[in-house]
Amino acid sequence: MTIGSSRPMEDAARIAYRELVRWLAADFGFEEIDAYMLLTQCGRVRLGNMVDPKYTLGASIAKSIALA
Questions:
Q1: Would you say 33 and 43 are in contact if contact means Cβ atoms under 8 Å apart?
Q2: What pLDDT tens digit does each residue of the chain (68 aa) get?
Q3: What confidence score (pLDDT) does residue 33 get?
Q4: pTM to 2 decimals?
Q5: Long-range contact list for 14-18, CB < 8 A, 24+ apart?
Q6: What DSSP string runs through 1-68?
Q7: Is the peptide bond before 53 cis (omega within 30 degrees of 0)?
Q8: Lesser CB count within 10 Å: N end or C end of the chain?
């Protein structure tokens, strides 16, 4: 899971997904474009905070999918 925090909410999601793509590429050997395409199908986004001036979202993917 990676976290993005920004305003507006779309930017927070974009940051979280970008960091997750980088992590999948660095630690699991994915090409960034392949990681991005996988996340468009299997990724999850959860809202963590919307009270402060910034929104915080977490982007994740199941380990069973990432390791397959």
A1: no
A2: 999 999 999 999 999 999 999 999 999 999 999 999 999 999 999 999 888 789 999 999 998 887 76
A3: 96
A4: 0.86
A5: 16/45, 16/57, 16/58, 16/59, 17/43, 17/45, 17/59
A6: -EEEEESSHHHHHHHHHHHHHHHHHHHH---HHHHHHHHHHH-EEEEEE-SSSSEEEEEE--HHHHT-
A7: no
A8: C
Q: For the chain, which domains are there?
A: 2-66 (3.10.28.20)
Torsion of CA 11, 14, 18, 20, to 10 degrees: 110
Residues 6+ positions from 32 with CB-CB distance below 8 Å: 21, 22, 25
Q: Which two tokens stand for residue 51?
A: 């009270």
Residue 64 to residue 31: CA distance in whole angstroms: 18
Cross-strand bridge partners of residue 46: 58
